[in-house]
Design a protein that fits this description.
- The protein is of the alpha/beta class and about 375 residues long.
- The protein is about 50% helix and about 10% strand.
- It contains 15 helices and twelve strands.
- The strands form three sheets. The chain has an eight-stranded parallel beta sheet.
């Protein structure tokens, strides 16, 4: 323990010493050339990477709260991102937390996306931490009821500023789901309004978050509805695709129109799209998002350690990380990178996944990192 503590203190000492339209580039020739040059730079960077390094970029590791372990894994596997949970914030001063985030970024060869779930209300990682300075984080429902979209905008700006100041550059929010029953699992995390009002909310929230140089991620595509909790096991929604298109997809379309940086796909089985596979593992669901909704940003799985997916992996006898990539995801949230990287390499060798697909996903990840000014 003493040796670990000494290494940790030594690392910290080294640090101490050491709008929708707002995101769009102008059509001027100079901006066009600069964009082309940056794209070429990214292509060259990817060409120089090993296959292991490229696959590592697709993983968003679940932080265990064990600084030494995560510090080691970020360096060894060259992970693309890390997701923070309660243990990462607990019993830490603001300075200590910021130093740890800085050390993580230093060990990442290509820049690190650092994400968390800061929705407000029941899912609020910053609540009761030193980072919050006593600030409370009401749910979107409470904020909307008190101050409408104007207050929604202000809250999302302030929260995004707080995240960025503390080294967090991606928020798994806002929630684009609509639920009709107050007893439903997801209801308290939604706006609590209809599809059209939720779409308006998503547009405002996405612009506000991304205006502060923090990536926003919509969830949970193609809409959670009144489904059961997929943390514990399988959940299904038996709803016509035409109804999805008229209702649940409206908030996601609003986010796409605002160039949202990421969209998280749920683990629910949407029977009208794919009656066998969870949405996160279904090519049909991803084709809907890419081809019909024309979304070109990052597609992120919901947590691959959740019950619905671990259960599916056992039943199907397949590696879920491989299945998630075959479906069309760019980022594997909570995947098992230690065993997954060799399995994905095997799938590439066997022709189940193309290396070109891996390169395209890495390119999207690097473009976002470049946009957030964290790409090395």
């Amino acid at each position: 323990m003493k040796k670990k503590k000494f290494i940790y203190l030594l690392l910290l000492a080294s640090i101490i010493l050491a709008g929708c339209s707002q995101k769009k580039l102008s059509n001027s020739k100079s901006n066009s050339k600069r964009t082309i040059q940056k794209s070429n730079d990214i292509d060259e960077k990817i060409k120089k990477m090993s296959l292991d390094q490229k696959i590592g970029q697709l993983y968003f590791a679940h932080s265990t709260g064990n600084f030494e372990q995560m510090f080691h894994d970020i360096q060894k596997y060259q992970l693309g991102g890390i997701t923070l949970f309660a243990p990462d914030y607990q019993r830490k001063s603001k300075k200590q937390f910021q130093n740890e985030m800085q050390l993580y970024r230093q060990k990442s060869q290509h820049g690190l996306l650092i994400s968390t779930d800061q929705e407000g209300g029941t899912v609020s990682r910053l609540s009761k931490t030193k980072l919050a300075n006593g600030r409370k984080f009401p749910s979107p429902q409470v904020i909307y009821q008190k101050g409408g979209l104007k207050q929604i905008k202000q809250e999302n700006i302030e929260v995004a500023q707080l995240l960025r100041q503390n080294g967090i550059n991606m928020n798994f929010a806002p929630v684009a789901d609509v639920s009709s029953k107050s007893s439903s699992f997801i209801y308290d995390r939604t706006l609590g309004e209809n599809y059209q009002k939720t779409a308006e909310y998503i547009s405002v929230a996405v612009k506000a978050i991304q205006s502060q140089n923090v990536a926003a991620v919509l969830k949970h595509f193609p809409g959670y509805g009144d489904a059961k909790d997929t943390h514990n096991g399988f959940a299904e929604v038996n709803k016509k695709l035409t109804d999805y298109e008229k209702e649940d997809l409206l908030p996601f379309k609003a986010g796409i129109n605002c160039d949202v940086d990421g969209i998280m796909v749920s683990h629910i089985i949407i029977k009208s799209l794919d009656n066998k596979r969870p949405a996160s593992l279904s090519p049909r669901v991803h084709q809907l998002l890419r081809n019909q909704l024309h979304y070109h940003g990052l597609i992120i799985t919901d947590d691959l350690q959740m019950g619905a997916i671990t259960e599916y992996g056992r039943v199907s006898h397949n590696n879920v990380d491989v299945l998630a990539l075959k479906a069309g995801n760019d980022i594997l949230l909570g995947g098992d990178y230690q065993t997954g990287i060799p399995e994905i390499k095997k799938a590439i060798k066997n022709g189940q996944i193309s290396e070109k697909q891996i390169d395209e996903s890495v390119k999207k990840i690097f473009k976002l990192k470049q946009q957030l000014k964290i790409l090395k």
